[in-house]
Write a structure and sequence with these properties.
2 helices; Immunoglobulin-like; single chain; alpha+beta; elongated; 22% helix; 30% strand
Length: 155
């Protein structure tokens, strides 16, 4: 009787954990069909410094170019979903602002929403680059966007 119970317990355990493993394999999200683009929200001449009176707004669009439903997480504080890099003409990278470094290095709860995009759908929003990057001098800069579909994780 004990032997039958042990065998039943082993088979039940294997069945339960096997279902959990295969269920996680099906949930993996294929992000190869995602398209993320940025463009200036209002083209104008921007001045150096992170003055709140001189924001640099960019329009960010996330589009599903695939045939399957695309799911990703977008944090309420978008500093956990996005990152900007800016480079000078000499390929020197600009520093991040103190606020983004502080937010990402403190232990806190990050609230987010899960967004689902069907085929051809697009989600767009506006962000201020000055919240992410320190711009010390007037110059020409190349701007790069990094999108974290599963939120930013410290390295």
């Amino acid at each position: 009787m004990k032997k039958i119970f042990k065998i039943f317990l082993i088979i039940s355990t294997i069945t339960i954990f096997g279902q959990m493993i295969f269920a996680n394999d099906n949930v993996k999200n294929d992000l190869s069909s995602i398209s993320v683009s940025i463009k200036y929200y209002n083209k104008t001449i921007y001045y150096s410094g992170n003055n709140p009176d001189n924001p640099i707004f960019v329009h960010i669009s996330i589009k599903n170019k695939g045939t399957e439903t695309l799911r990703f997480k977008l944090a309420d504080d978008r500093m956990f979903s996005l990152d900007f890099n800016a480079y000078t003409v000499k390929h020197d990278m600009l520093n991040q602002t103190d606020s983004i470094i502080e937010k990402r290095s403190t232990n806190q709860t990050v609230y987010f929403r899960e967004i689902s995009l069907e085929q051809g759908e697009e989600y767009s929003f506006i962000e201020n680059v000055n919240d992410y990057i320190k711009i010390p001098d007037s110059s020409i800069y190349y701007l790069e966007l990094i999108f974290y579909p599963e939120l930013y994780k410290s390295k």
